[in-house]
Queue: 4 jobs
Job 1
Amino acid sequence: MINASIQNMGDNLMKRNIVLTVGAHPADFTNAAGTLANHIRNGDKVFLAILTHGINSHFRNTDFRAYLTKETPSLSDIFAKLKMEKRRETKEAATVLGIEESNIRFLDYDDGPLLVEKKIIYDLAVYIREVRPNMIILHLPTENDHEDHQSAGDIGTRAIKAAANYIPQCNLPNYAVKNVFFMMPNYINKYRSFGHVLQAPDVVINIEDTIDLKREACTKFVSQKYTSEWAKKIWDCVSGIVGIMHGFEYGEAFISMNPVVSKLLPEMITRTIYDWEDD
């Protein structure tokens, strides 16, 4: 089902949007890469806010022997080099999708764990006022894939409220974001393990035309060992099941924060798995 907190998908394909995606770690925005590429092709502006440097979360995947050189003789030197490398990978992945390098903000907080604190909330809120997006994509605050994703979703919702109300020592005008979408977690089986019931998505985006860009963007994160084989396998599975359940080949699923507000029931663009029979 296509949710109409964005009111009308047809109108949205005609207007120009400003989309801000907030990720806990450098590679997290690729979870919505197909959707972001669609928006770029629509002529929209896409911005990224990367909350942490992301080193700790992928510490076990790092081959430190490859970084131990005369120029980086200590662990702190290696961390500094990794931080710059992840920034470079982020910029390269964003370029694949068509996102301008100047539209990326690195907040550079520590991850593993990412803490929900006032400073990071206000820093993100300031960026929201700077960018003034009419759409924001966040992690789901109840996600079980990664604890930092939960924190990032919490930070994002709090920053949205702060941007609309009060930020200490900020002279930028208040700004209220109307449309907020949470990325559906990739590993839904974890919810069953924890006994949680996951809400079904109410926004599903067809990314058949941009799945190749999504895969390619992922492969830029070499430091996390995201190979082309891995990218094809993970997104064929995750985006493939989302797509096929809604009548097309590849999709990305979201949960909208705000309900549809209308005097009449909105006409939805709907497809199901059974629509394959008509294609």
Note: Residues 60 and 224 are 9 Å apart (CA to CA).
Job 2
Amino acid sequence: MTKRREIGFTLIRGFLAILIALLVATLLIFISAEGEGIGEKLEAAGEALKQLLIGPLFRMGKNGTSFELKRLADVFASMIPTIFTGLSVCVMFSANQFNLGSEGGCMLGAFAAGMVAVYLPMAAGVHAAVAVLIAGIVVAAVMLIPALLKAKMGVSEMVNSLMLNYIIMYIIKYLMSTHLADKSKGQIQSFPFMETAKIGPIVDNSIFTGAKLTWGFVIALIAVVIVAVFMYRTRWGYSIRMIGINQSFSMYSGMKVGAVVVLSQVLGGFLAGGPGVGKR
């Protein structure tokens, strides 16, 4: 019964969070909407909410509203970065480590995977897998910086990771604007990916023509299951959760708090590298 109540509370809490977010968004849209009277503002706000909630899945035009599978596939594709960064944050926050480096990890993972896809020729199938692995390892290695500073010197991982995001962003911008840019293009971009490095689409037919949904979505769902098993069915996951609940008790019970703190942030960094490869 307690477990059911906990699940019910979690669902209700999530629903209320979404509802409050929508109410706040509606209020802000209403305040900024064009129109002289309240009626015109309400109409404009309603149209904006319609585009926000229905527009991603339905084509709305003069001939009416129609559902499109391609749009649903694009929504699933857009979920890939959110799933991986969510998993990353969950692992780190479970250890009570407020590492905010997932944003920079996402950028760095995309950059590392892109460089593998451009400059390291490999066989089809293996190439994409190696790009995913390297992206995760690179981000995990970078997350060692705030992890070790917190474990060894007690430096706030929140401040460290926020600063690290900007360092990563500007280094990538510099490299992409100079040494790694394809100067034949009219915008800043890398050279084209090798075909062997691209993750193929899940469905490829006339209905889904142009859809961005790849097997990265399946990888993301598998990652959710693996992380859940790791966090709730292994002693390492138990250690991470216990340290997050009561670090002092965990230390006195014999757990290696410093090592687990580092482990949680390194694992979170590895997961944060996932969005860089999920949609290509």
Note: The chain has a mean pLDDT of 85.
Job 3
Amino acid sequence: MTEPIEKIARRDFLALAGGLSAALLSPPEVEARTTYAKIPVPDVGYKPIVKDQGFSSVELAPKSPNNYQLDVISRIQRTERWRNIAEAVEDRFGIPRGIIYAVVMNESYGDPLQPNATNDGGLGLVHFQPGTAIAYGLDIFGNSKRRGRDHRHGRQLADMLKECKYDIKCVLEEDDRAHPIKNLDAIARYLKDGFSRKGNWEGAVQTINPKGRGYAGRIFRWQNAAIKFREAAERDFNERNRGKMVNGHKLTYDFYIKSFWDMNRNFGLGDYKKLKRVA
């Protein structure tokens, strides 16, 4: 039997939600005057263009905060699934390669259904709080408009995810933050607004968590680690899944990742790539 993408996301969530540190969860803040926030959210949803391969037998590296290399590998193996989306978003907005990928590594381990571990109201590949998401044009579940922590909203999200049985297609009907393209497009626009205010990418990244000391430095370290340990992540995956088959294909890291990249067309990636680039 195969396992659809939403089940993989649910498994990752259950494995990781309890361990994310508060440093990863600080919500983005929005200043009163923005420009890129006014750019419309891309008109993409979910269409089953590509058959979901299903990866019921896949084993990924565990989250390992006490083992730096293994922890990096675990982040890469999950985040790599969305790299073609992250790069398309970076290309559209002229953001240096790898910044958005690194933010995702830091925020959610690459799980689009990942709420903040403390249930404070954030959701998505990048943890947008409700008020910030609304400011950047995203439709969200519930009626919260807070830009800071909102535990009531967090509990509502938890109930909604359970009601949807962690089915990403169901969740997308309720909250745009779970849509990989809409989520990353929004953080790209947020970063561009930050760059307009700060004048450099380090300052722009720090605006995601202005009160989090060293946040930007952590993101750039993930960016470098993603390059340094990418081959190690592949070797680790292939060793863990040696001899396994999926739909008649040998379960290799290359097959696993490229299958996700292909399935990302279901979220509208092809149409997104046709959008006009924004300076």
Note: The chain has a mean pLDDT of 90.
Job 4
Amino acid sequence: MTESNKDAAEHPQQVVLADGARAGSSFELTYDEAKRLCQYSLDIVCISNFNGEIIWSNGVDCHITGYSKEELNAITWREITHPDDLGLVSESLQVVSQGELRPSTEIRARCKDGSYKWISWSGVPVIEENKIYSIGRDVTAQKIAEAEAKKLASIVQSSSEAILSIDDRKCITSWNKGAELLYGYQSAEVMGNSIEVLLPASQRNSCLLETLTSPIHDRQEIHTRSDGSAVEVSLSLFSVASEFALSSGTAAIIRDISKQKAAERWINQGVWIFTCTKH
């Protein structure tokens, strides 16, 4: 038993956490302070045995799942774990029962109303006590957001229209299949390169090079394909901000309007010929 554990055993109303921010200092957390820390936590703080039976919790598990404390005490977490996650739970319990730490494990827990919540678990085993001291965080909203982001990314990637994004340095940061078909460049060929690769020398005033202050809709320009041929396009641009970036970028949706413009020229030419013939 370490000196800190001996001290905790002799003074059960105090918990020695660790050396403080200043060298040589220490902070002693009283029992009541530790209890309040658990009580006010938004995460599940609990103690369980290696069978997954909850010995004690701060009650947040009741708030998340909708079960009463009595109901949760009468079952194990295995019983309310999604069937597809049971193997992961067994594997995690086996690892920690050997005294090893395991990175966060995410499982789905069945709530009292039949719905499921994603819980991210982190735990520290204490073999001699046959206990696991754990923290569980509800990451359901994060999981839903990730699923929606993947769905949106799939839609963007499979779109027949060219959809790309550029950063504040006017370098390409994303490139979908539609862009590959329109311009003839594979993603690996243009990612990180200047957007100017798509612009002929005569188009250096492109709105793609402007500092965007408001959305742009249906701006018509002439761009250059990978083979050097010209293509008439219609662009719609809007600003996008990253949660982690200090600056924003620009997203572009680009349509090939070459056939439409050719038809317009043919019609206009026909009208001109008809007018000249009439006179």
Note: The CA atoms of residues 107 and 119 lie 6 Å apart.
